[in-house]
Amino acid sequence: MKTKHIVLVCLVLAASITWYFIFFDQDYQPTTDFDETESHLVVWSRNHKNTYINFIKNLAEDDHVSLYVPKSTPKDSLFYELKSVGVNMDNVHMETVANDNIWIRDFGPVFLMNKSGKTKSLSFKYYEYQENLFPYEYQAIVKERLRASRVVGIGGARELNGKGLAILVEKHEQDANPNLSKDEIAKELKKKLGVKKIIWLKSGLPQDEEQAITPLLDTVYTNGAGHHIDSFCRFVSPNTVLLAQVNSYEINSHPILKMANERLEENYTILKNALDQDGKPLNIIRVPVAPLLFEKEIDVDTHRTFLRSNSYLNFIITKHKVIVPSYGHYMKTEDAISRDLEVQHIFKSIFPNKNIVMLDCIDLNRNGGGFHCIAINKPKKKKKVA
């Protein structure tokens, strides 16, 4: 009789575990930029101090911020500095870390959630030539294990709609994973992220080309991130994509704009002819490219002109705001000012219930990034579905 009871208990336990994995621990999807946010993860940068203060101040008005402070910056002094300029420090939690790489979007955790509200996190490999300690530090802080992937996966280089659709850029993936085919990359994303379908775009903006020995055009050099999708194409809902566009009147005004137009229209054709994970066409909204920004740099005896990787689509969504890069205040040209206003109106039409905040991030653009590159939104946990 005792043996029968033990067998019965084991069968019940096995059935429970099976039910758990079939109905409760399955169908994970990456959370998105437009999901409800528990906290924005940001790594402090003293080299971009003014931009960070304005950015964090706007985030912390209504949202929570997890601010990771490199050891080189005293945490207490930063706390009082932020508080003195009006940052709502009740909404900011600070942690000291060894990591001082600010581009957390690229190397930080990917958050996944299933329909039952259960969450888990994933860490992709970072660039082979750069050490990435943050996943280990993050695990220790939150006391949660991050699952790992064997491929290089850069957060700013992929767009996910949270329903099984991913948009990737061929040129970036070829550079990031030179020894893997598109099929091998797709297989890994399907396994680790639950991706059901991938739309492959061809290349990113010329403004976002990585720095090279040779110029992009004549004597113009770039120092961008390298075909990152978050500079020209973004999901704002599971079925709606924003795609940058060169205005028709300026296509022939500069060779770089002509190059950008060719790349963007090739990508537009791909998106227009693509279907989402459910076989439905995408809703595509075009947003003007940012005005070309050229700056001269002097390195010893060398004078170079750099084209900055600026973009209106490197934005962040918060509870009550959308924080969008602006260029009119810095460039002080009629074109940049009017373009800022045009973009602000477009974003307001997309997010009618949110405040559209236009902020300068030129110093981030100089290093190949923007607001979306320096923050990750950790999702708010959903209540379990009955």
From TrEMBL:
One GO process term, biological-process aspect: putrescine biosynthetic process
Its EC number(s): 3.5.3.12
GO molecular function: agmatine deiminase activity; protein-arginine deiminase activity
Matching InterPro entries: Peptidyl-Arg-deiminase_porph
Keyword line: Hydrolase, Membrane, Transmembrane, Transmembrane helix
Residues spanning the membrane: 7-24
First-tier enzyme category under EC: hydrolase
Keyword Lipid biosynthesis: no
SUPFAM superfamilies from the UniProt entry: Pentein
Pfam families associated with the record: PAD_porph (PF04371)
Protein name (record): Agmatine deiminase
Organism name: Jejuia pallidilutea
